[in-house]
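Review form for a predicted model. The reviewer records the input and the model, then writes brief findings.
Reviewer: anonymous (R2)
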Amino acid sequence: MQGKAIVIFHGDCDGAISAGLYIRHFLMDFFPSDIILKYSHPWRLEQDLLNAFKKISRESIDAIVILDLAIRDTVIDMLLKNFKHTSTNIVIIDHHLSSLHAIETLKNRAINIRTYWNGVQSTPQVIASLLVKNLNTYEKFLVNVANICEGGDAEEINVKNTADKIKLVLAIEPLNEKLILSTVESIVKGEEFWNSNEFENRFWKGKWLLRLLLKKIEERVEQICKWHLASFTATESLIFAGLFGIASSEYIKKYKYPIVLLREEEDKAVVTVRSAEGKALEFCKNLAQWLSQKVEGVYGGHKEAASITIRNYESLEKLKNILKEYIKNTLC
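Model under review:
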């Protein structure tokens, strides 16, 4: 009797595309009834995996696939603890530079975890370069879309427009499980979901919100040395949802300065960093070390685009002052 496959992926443009492509080529025997499809984010991956495991016995899990989620050592430790002595096949596919250390630690461990990492533009590009050589036209188109979503250059206007649409729609509703999962399911079925009226309407709403967020960043930004800094409350985070990463990328294109956006989200603070000079990941890594032991910081990303999630901080204003002090002491 066939067991279940858990596919957990980053709930953004290239994460959703990588999930759809992987299922199309390797898990169609499980689709749709025997796949547990779950979207996540790097800072909460461990908890989302544990929640998925609670829904099903470990003995009935045939496969676990983790896509585009900036793997950390703690995730590897958790997988080892739960599946070291099982027959479950575990696959990790990623392109984040911050995940390379955790993946390297697996090389000397005898366990049923296969890892595929490449420092290319997107996780779908990793799949195309290391796992699947016979992509059809639809799949190649989506790999190009994912690359543009992750900051690549667009030669074809149709690819760019599709990437802009998917990226923005998924960003404005990062908690809309139905939307995110239906996007993956549409890819598995080979549908051009981005051309639907619903997607089009959501896109124009996202364009309006993105313009508003960029205006607010410009109004409140502070310059510290060559770095720009702006902060947002928890209420504003609810309004602008997942647009902060897109807005920060648009900002550095326009002003040519690295940008740091600080915002509150429920019980945590998130620092989004963009740097055209490739200092974003280094910024987050060093900031995690700069923070006091009482303040927990989990970071990940790429040289040009990274973020750090911070818990146990006192207030947004105090955290903003810590960021200012960090920039002045380490980057000026």
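Findings: The CA atoms of residues 106 and 113 lie 8 Å apart.
Further findings: The mean pLDDT is 92.
Recommendation: see findings above.
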